[in-house]
């Protein structure tokens, strides 16, 4: 296509509300336009990218034997009441009434609708396993939509759901989807990692997230430096450790006036935070409990939630009611249950609160303290990998996919049963599999940009090649050469953009770089004097002179690489 | 693909709420599934059809130089307030509040959003003309959703919008879109007509509807039997006629006791309805008016609306207040303005009410009656075509497309201006162009079915070819032959379905006919004994024996036809 046939409203400045680079660049490159908070229109270049992502996703889902369906955006409340989520789901679920006053929601996800469909149409075990997917508009009423299409209210998801007779069959499809997702993200040209994840509010038994690695990622993910182990930081599980040290010190109470944080205490006493033990008091449905962790570790709220159910940190009043002194709480002489993190219980000669104002203990040890042990903490860089191979590295990632084993949460609530081999009704077992299609674009940009703009992976670039002729409107020679090369590219099936504007070369270069088109061919009278064109790859800094007659073959070779 | 890999939940009975054949067949063939009133999920076969329609639409829109965009389903109230439609639009516009209480609607159409985009990004006349389209989910909160996807609440539209410097440029794009729509409906394999239409509530100056001809159509459309003239019945315009008769009769008042309708009077007096004149009293913002039409003609409410603005039929009280007698109102001696339809004003020696109870006049004539003339009526079959060529035929149609010249209704209200050649701001002129993508499927079925099911046009059939092997699971020979032919078809790029179920032949035949797959190849031991397969086209009744070895070549020839 030619640039003048397209609306590509590039701009130099990013809007004020664009905090992250993908948001800034998507607006600046004219891929999207903000309609309202969390609502974006995709402009022609944005749609080209979107269609490419969608088409790769569809091809691989089809290959995996998943059947494409299309369910409504609008969902009746009754189904969500059946699953129990009408009440459970927070205000992100946009609820509304139709003109007759009936309740509906705009679907943030489609478990209810697909399970309802399966209950209607899948009746025999012989039909199983079966999986369905759709590429569809979702809505989530985010309280603070931000980061452009990364956390918008309306977005496009590929969501898929599978139905099975048993767990073994689910595991098979789950593994196939894991492979399929790897193929999809490979083809999209992204540097990503599948990681063990928590299955969160969707419920269910096993799940993996697919993260695009990028410094701006919202999530922390942990890898082994020696094995395939990878998990969301929330999900890294630690086991009970052997005590390898010996208590040597003599316990003493020391004055630590106004030193209430681990940082202050460790600095004041010149002891590493890993030699300090901190005690948190939490309030659970069973009353107050004390949790002890190493000073350099953080409580993992998901692990705590799994152990204690709903909980919160105790208030100052509640701490006081136990006779404890905030900032100086220790592990000795507590009147409530004490649970010690596996890494904390193996420390010897540690520092902890003395349970007296302005006093800490030094040289403390666990002897004589009554406690149980548990895995309570987040991983930190350098931890031993839970698979016993190597140490953990922590990187930031952007979640672009998520696969879950749902079990029978929905199929039980919504009566998705089949007649089993024995003639008895069996509740189906489900999996679900999502990819944030619009999010993939933002994540690809977060991972691939420089100070001049986007560097799109080839598979999702809006065009493969841009031809930039200098003085297209003044030099007949340049125009003829450019038109001819453009025609050659079109006939070879190359997605090529001819910049036929009457703009200065600098503006055309800047726009093509901002847009991230992978290959650029420049035509000018100067190059033509030597029978050449100038080639530059978007992700390389050097330029090449290539003979005009070889230009097509050259670019075809580049595209084949 | 193989039938066992797909969910194709065919059923013998149609649901009770399915009144029209396309709704019945789409449910029975397992193309769609009802989720709630006016909300349908597309099952795998339905999605295959949908994608084919979408892809033809996209290809032709791209060829016409229109740029694909994607705007949100959710639209902020502010834009609709700017255009004035927030108040104007009825309860079909689904309005809701987000979690912060801000007002939004689910878009039934996107004039506001696209005009807002154009106002932001199209700034110079040099960028014009420019047109945009999207294939997108719309919502219209129908009071009584019915007819399946024909009048559902959520549906998919291809909507397009064009921006111009002047009317001449709009006309050019409008004509191009007219041609593009013809190409689209040609490729879809539909028998359709573009007809002149009223532009309705969208506003604007000129419009055409594209109707698929089908007896079940909601609209009546008129064609000349001798020319290209075609128009929605509401839009057929008549001109003033010459009087060609002479008043010969003597006017008499006759007793017509309790004969209050044209049918009763014409039968009682043995006079054709076309020789009777009926008088309607309407209430307008300027007071009561009398309208006279021929007894065999109906008032065209749109024409009346264009002449008189909002109006309604006068109440019994209002008729009484004029001293008139309902059922016996005539054209003589009225105290209010009388407007006579062009076809009524040229009748001589007619029958009309006598303005007395139980009395009509016979042999009445217009001499001495004060009136003005206007085009007030709907066309009837046999009317002279307004272009002077031939007579009108009336058929029923289903509206699947609509193109409008919008003028500056939206661009003016929403400040879509460009800097013109002279340096001054010019308001853009707009066109808009819609195709009901999901509606096209229902319309195609209304036009193509028989008592066994759907007869899909080749371009949108879910599969091109179905292979039905008899005893696939028992006869190794049949299985080998079928698998081999299936493989040949796949390798030749044919979209083929292999019915590999353990079902009786009758069920497999019935399902393939219900689904409307254009070409069927049957393999059985009997046919194999002769080295043959049996071929049947869905739209033909005869079966052919074809040599197995020639089967692929044969089917390729059929597909090329």
TrEMBL record, chains A, B:
Annotated InterPro entries: aa-tRNA-synt_IIb, aa-tRNA-synth_II, aa-tRNA-synth_II/BPL/LPL, Anticodon-bd, Anticodon-bd_dom_sf, Pro-tRNA-ligase_IIa, Pro-tRNA-synth_IIa_bac-type, Pro-tRNA-Synthase_IIa_type1
GO cellular component terms given for this protein: cytosol
Domain of life: Bacteria
EC number(s) from the headed UniProt entry: 6.1.1.15
EC supergroup of this enzyme: ligase
Keywords in alphabetical order: Aminoacyl-tRNA synthetase, ATP-binding, Cytoplasm, Ligase, Nucleotide-binding, Protein biosynthesis
Catalytic activity: tRNA(Pro) + L-proline + ATP = L-prolyl-tRNA(Pro) + AMP + diphosphate
Subcellular compartments: Cytoplasm
Main subcellular location: cytoplasm
Aminoacyl-transfer RNA synthetases class-II family profile domain segment(s): 38-457
GO molecular function, one term: proline-tRNA ligase activity
Biological process, per Gene Ontology: prolyl-tRNA aminoacylation
Subunit structure: Homodimer.
NCBIfam families: PRK09194.1, proS_fam_II
UniProt similarity note: Belongs to the class-II aminoacyl-tRNA synthetase family. ProS type 1 subfamily.
Function: Catalyzes the attachment of proline to tRNA(Pro) in a two-step reaction: proline is first activated by ATP to form Pro-AMP and then transferred to the acceptor end of tRNA(Pro). As ProRS can inadvertently accommodate and process non-cognate amino acids such as alanine and cysteine, to avoid such errors it has two additional distinct editing activities against alanine. One activity is designated as 'pretransfer' editing and involves the tRNA(Pro)-independent hydrolysis of activated Ala-AMP.
Domain observations: Consists of three domains: the N-terminal catalytic domain, the editing domain and the C-terminal anticodon-binding domain.
Protein known as: Proline--tRNA ligase
Native species: Candidatus Thioglobus autotrophicus
Gene: proS
């Amino acid at each position: 296509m030619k640039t003048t046939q397209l609306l590509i409203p590039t701009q130099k400045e990013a809007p004020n509300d664009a905090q992250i680079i993908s948001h800034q660049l998507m607006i600046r490159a004219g891929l999207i336009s903000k309609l309202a908070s969390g609502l974006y229109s995709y402009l022609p270049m944005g749609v080209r990218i979107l269609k490419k992502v969608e088409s790769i996703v569809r091809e691989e889902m089809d290959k995996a034997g998943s059947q494409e369906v299309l369910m409504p955006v609008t969902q009746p409340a009754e189904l969500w009441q059946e699953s129990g989520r009408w009440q459970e789901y927070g205000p992100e679920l946009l609820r509304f009434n139709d003109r007759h006053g009936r309740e509906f929601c705009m679907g943030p996800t489609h478990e209810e609708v697909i399970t309802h469909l399966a209950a209607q149409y899948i009746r025999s075990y012989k039909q199983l396993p079966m999986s369905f997917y759709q590429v569809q508009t979702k809505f989530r009423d985010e309280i603070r939509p931000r980061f452009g299409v990364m956390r918008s209210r309306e977005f496009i998801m590929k969501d898929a759901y599978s139905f099975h007779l048993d767990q073994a069959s689910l595991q098979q499809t789950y593994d196939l989807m894991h492979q399929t997702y790897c193929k999809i993200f490979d083809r999209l040209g992204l540097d990503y990692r599948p990681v063990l994840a928590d299955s969160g509010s969707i419920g269910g038994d096993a799940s993996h997230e697919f993260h695009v690695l990028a410094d701006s990622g919202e999530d922390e993910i942990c890898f082994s430096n020696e094995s395939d182990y990878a998990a969301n930081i929330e999900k890294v599980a630690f086991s009970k450790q052997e005590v390898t040290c010996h208590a040597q010190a003599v316990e003493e109470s020391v004055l630590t006036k106004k030193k209430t944080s681990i940082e202050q205490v460790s600095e004041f006493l010149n002891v590493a935070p890993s030699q300090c033990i901190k005690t948190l008091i939490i309030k659970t449905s069973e009353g107050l409990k004390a949790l002890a962790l190493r000073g350099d570790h953080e409580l993992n709220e998901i692990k705590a939630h799994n152990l204690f159910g709903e909980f919160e940190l105790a208030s100052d009043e509640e701490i006081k009611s136990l006779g404890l002194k905030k900032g100086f709480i220790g592990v000795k002489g507590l009147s409530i249950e004490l649970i010690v993190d596996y890494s904390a219980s193996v420390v010897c000669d540690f520092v902890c609160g003395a349970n007296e104002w302005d006093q800490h203990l030094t040289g403390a040890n666990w002897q004589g303290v009554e406690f149980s042990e548990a895995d309570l903490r987040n991983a930190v860089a350098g931890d031993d990998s839970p698979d016993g191979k190597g140490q953990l590295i922590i990187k930031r990632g952007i979640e672009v996919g998520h696969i879950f084993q749902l079990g029978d949460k929905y199929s039980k609530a919504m009566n998705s049963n089949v007649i089993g081999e024995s003639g008895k009704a069996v509740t189906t077992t489900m999996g679900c599999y999502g990819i944030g299609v619009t999010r993939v674009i933002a994540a690809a940009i977060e991972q691939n940009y420089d100070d001049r703009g986007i560097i799109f992976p080839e598979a999702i670039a809006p065009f493969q090649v841009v031809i930039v002729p200098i003085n297209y409107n003044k030099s007949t020679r340049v125009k003829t050469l450019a038109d001819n090369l453009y025609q050659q590219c079109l006939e070879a099936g190359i997605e090529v953009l001819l910049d036929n504007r009457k703009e200065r070369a600098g503006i055309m270069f800047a726009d093509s770089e901002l847009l991230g088109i992978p290959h650029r061919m420049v035509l000018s009278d100067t190059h033509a004097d030597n029978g050449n064109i100038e080639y530059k790859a978007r992700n390389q800094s050097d330029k090449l002179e290539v003979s005009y007659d070889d230009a097509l073959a050259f670019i075809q070779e580049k595209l084949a690489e």
